[in-house]
Design a protein that fits this description.
Blueprint (H helix, E strand, L loop, with lengths): L4 H6 L7 E3 L8 E2 L29 E21 L10 E2 L3 E19 L2 E14 L13 E6 L2 E10 L6 E11 L1 H5 L11 E12 L2 E11 L3 E3 L2 E3 L2 E11 L4 E12 L7 E11 L6 E12 L7 E11 L169 E4 L2 E4 L1
Length: 494
């Protein structure tokens, strides 16, 4: 489909279909169909229309109201031609604003009976106003104005793969509508003429403050026709991205569209919306607001759309996705580091073992370092610094490995054999089986010295152990040297 010249210049009109007003042509529209393509996602952890897969909670529920206004969502070209409005001989009339104003209030609710399954309900109430369309393709002289309940939608969404805080989660949803719109306001484009049913695949990713999601759905719906454009079963898609500015505020860009299963006389569409989602930490309220426009024009794609939504969420909230509910989480916006240390408080523990070495650099984050001068920066206690098999608390030489030689191997000190245990190793001990008498005299040879001065008087009886006795018959038993003086021809001992 192409926009009219007026649409290109003004950027406001949407060419939704090509109509022929020749009397030979069939009626302008055939069948009942809804032009409302904005389908807000019920429940928490979604974008605006693109569904997220992070279903969580047990007996959690939500209730909300999502209102949107669309300007000129259904505008057609009126012409007189045997083929279509782009033919050279076509006589193009004024664009017909079949629906110029479309306002819908979606009342929504969800229930999560088990953590991975969410049941959703959406009940739209819609107001439409425009020119309408006559059987010959022009505007209806009576115009179009109606209020009615749109098609009631039921959705069952499940998280199939991944946990709530995982970077990538996959889900699926089965959904369907009841054609209440055609019952409450027939012929006013707020509901399909038959029930619809669809299956939607969902992927949901996140990395830091960034998030993204995508939906692809196959939908069976009844057929309809607007001029030469046919409506019926179709593929629908949605792609969205978000950036979390803070724990309270997320900026969202959301696009959605569809295409008929059969390309013959079908219609394609794409709308892009941007806005914000606000989730105050101290409340259970989530607020969405934004605006958008059509990119690929089709039936139901407006020139401009604005929306505002409120949702009340009653669940054991876990905003940081660490598995600890916010009411029990001392750090509700910062995820717990599951490391076996105080994992129940919801706060990451920078130094679990309290050894002043941060866990990020600590090789043993749950065991405190023993500051003993040996490898004190790795964060791990060393029970046997010298790795000699003797624990440091029993090792007399914790930084010197024991020499395993059968001699005092339990003290943890390197040694060589010292048979007589006199401190002089056998390799240097001249008397390895006799202990040295440590008395300051030749103590390094390893031999006991019973008579240091060699005067024949044992040291234990020698009053002068380092001075030899003078054998002169005078007190020779005291071990001390003495002499005899001669005086006037006589000897005098002293």
């Amino acid at each position: 489909m192409k926009r009219t010249s007026q649409a290109v210049l003004a950027g406001a009109l949407v060419c939704a279909s090509t109509l022929a007003s020749s009397p030979a042509r069939a009626q302008a529209t055939d069948g009942e169909f809804s032009i409302q393509r904005f389908n807000p996602a019920p429940g928490p952890r979604n974008y605006f229309t693109t569904r997220g897969a992070r279903v969580e909670g047990e007996m959690a529920w939500s209730a909300g109201l999502f209102a949107n206004y669309a300007y000129q969502p259904f505008v057609v070209r009126s012409c007189r031609s045997e083929t279509d409005c782009d033919a050279p001989n076509a006589v193009v009339g004024d664009d017909v604003k079949v629906v110029e104003n479309l306002f819908t209030a979606d009342f929504m609710g969800t229930l999560t009976p088990i953590p991975r399954l969410q049941l959703g309900l959406r009940a739209p109430v819609t107001y439409v106003k425009g020119q309408g369309i006559s059987e010959n393709g022009g505007g209806d002289p009576d115009g179009l104005s109606a209020v009615g309940m749109g098609d009631l939608e039921i959705e069952a969404k499940a998280r199939a793969y991944g946990e709530l805080k995982d970077p990538f989660v996959v889900g699926a949803a089965l959904f369907g509508t009841v054609n209440t719109g055609s019952i409450t306001a027939e012929g006013n484009y707020i509901g399909d003429n038959t029930p619809t049913v669809g299956l939607r695949g969902i992927f949901d990713g996140s990395e830091g403050p960034f998030s993204f999601g995508g939906n692809l759905a196959a939908v069976y719906r009844g057929t309809g026709r607007v001029g030469s454009t046919e409506l019926g079963p179709e593929f629908r898609y949605g792609v969205a991205g978000g950036f979390r500015v803070s724990p309270v505020l997320r900026v969202v860009l959301d696009g959605f569209g569809g295409t008929k299963f059969s390309a013959k006389n079908g219609t394609n569409s794409l709308e892009v919306d941007g806005g914000i989602q606000v989730t105050p930490l101290s409340s259970h309220i989530a607020i969405s607001a934004g605006a958008g426009t059509g990119v690929i024009q089709g039936i139901g794609v407006p020139a401009v759309r604005g929306f505002l939504g409120f949702m009340f969420i009653q669940e054991k909230s876990d905003k940081d996705g660490d598995g600890i509910r916010d009411e029990d989480d001392q750090c509700p916006t910062v995820p717990e580091d599951k490391d076996g240390k105080e994992d129940g408080d919801g706060c990451p523990d920078g130094d679990n073992d309290g050894d002043t070495i941060a866990d990020a650099q600590d090789k043993c984050p749950t065991e405190p370092e023993d500051p003993d001068g040996f490898e004190d920066t790795d964060g791990c206690p060393e029970e046997d610094n010298d790795k000699d098999g003797i624990r440091d608390d029993a090792d007399r030489c914790p930084l010197q490995p024991e020499t395993k030689n059968g001699y005092k191997d339990e003290d943890g000190c390197p040694d060589v054999p010292d048979t007589d245990n006199d401190g002089v190793p056998d390799t240097k001990d001249k008397c390895p089986s006799e202990p040295e008498d440590t008395d300051g005299f030749q103590d390094t040879d390893g031999c006991p010295d019973p008579d240091n001065d060699g005067d024949g008087v044992p040291d234990n009886a020698d009053e002068c152990i380092d001075q030899p006795e003078t054998k002169n018959g005078y007190k020779d038993e005291d071990g001390c040297p003495d002499e005899v003086e001669e005086s006037k021809g006589k000897k005098k001992k002293r």
